[in-house]
Amino acid sequence: NAGVTQTPKFQVLKTGQSMTLQCAQDMNHEYMSWYRQDPGMGLRLIHYSVGAGITDQGEVPNGYNVSRSTTEDFPLRLLSAAPSQTSVYFCASSYPSKGGYGYTFGSGTRLTVV
Amino acid sequence: GDSVTQMEGPVTLSEEAFLTINCTYTATGYPSLFWYVQYPGEGLQLLLKATKADDKGSNKGFEATYRKETTSFHLEKGSVQVSDSAVYFCALSETSGSRLTFGEGTQLTVNP
């Protein structure tokens, strides 16, 4: 199993450009989520999904769009990149595990907006 | 909404010192609690977790006990090593398990 795969690993964008961060999992997990990591602020939830066709906003959704057409894929779209979106982005999937839930994280995408 | 508060950092210790990183939370229902570790330039690794009150999670010499009465999940290690230098994140997962809420992270540096 590959687990959670994020692409690309690094990306530089110009202000105003759009792009899609890819996230795919091969474990048939129903739940998936996106986070951004900024210094001193931990990881903050952007969007999440509880199944194909179902998404919801997290703490910091502005400027990002998601869709979930299949169980495997949960892409994150930046509509018009801004320097404030410079961050490291992590995708995760979650699954029932021994009285609670377990989470599997991708290796992250480091995005710089200039 | 749910929230997690970690002790302010960074924390600098000498090798073999005792480590405590405080974590308190606010949540409705019965969340699961986690500690994640991030080594320089790497992603997140699960260090330990606990799913109900009074559970103790442990791994690699680290321990944390789920205290519902004080809404806390403090991380401890009896004797830290230089290789423990990393950023540590406390997190909670609400009952549905669909997402995590993270604390701010605590940078730990261990000097030889």
From the structure above, extract its key features:
heterodimer, A: 114 residues, mainly beta, B: 112 residues, six-stranded mixed β-sheet, four-stranded antiparallel β-sheet, 12 strands, 0% helix, globular
Tell me what you see in this structure.
The complex is a heterodimer of chains A (114) and B (112). With 114 residues, chain A is mainly β. Helix content of chain A is 0%, strand content 55%. In chain A, the strands form 2 sheets. In chain A, strands 2, 4, 5, 6, 9, 10 and 11 form a 7-stranded mixed β-sheet that branches. A 4-stranded antiparallel β-sheet of chain A has the order 1-3-8-7, with no helix packed on it. The radius of gyration of chain A is 14 Å and the shape is globular. Chain A starts with a strand and ends with a strand. In chain A, 35% of the residues are buried. The model of chain A has no long low-confidence stretch (mean pLDDT 94). With 112 residues, chain B is mainly beta. Chain B contains no helices and 12 strands. Chain B has strands at residues 3-6, 11-14, 19-21, 23-26, 32-38, 45-50, 56-59, 62-65, 75-77, 86-93, 100-102, 106-111. In chain B, strands 2, 5, 6, 10, 11 and 12 form a 6-stranded mixed β-sheet that branches. The radius of gyration of chain B is 13 Å and the shape is globular. In chain B, 39% of the residues are buried. The interface between A and B is medium-sized, with 28 and 23 residues.
Identify the overall geometry of chain A: globular
**Strand tally of chain A:** 11
Helix content of chain A: under 10%
Poorly predicted runs of 5 or more residues of chain B:
none
User: Oligomeric form of this entry?
Assistant: heterodimer
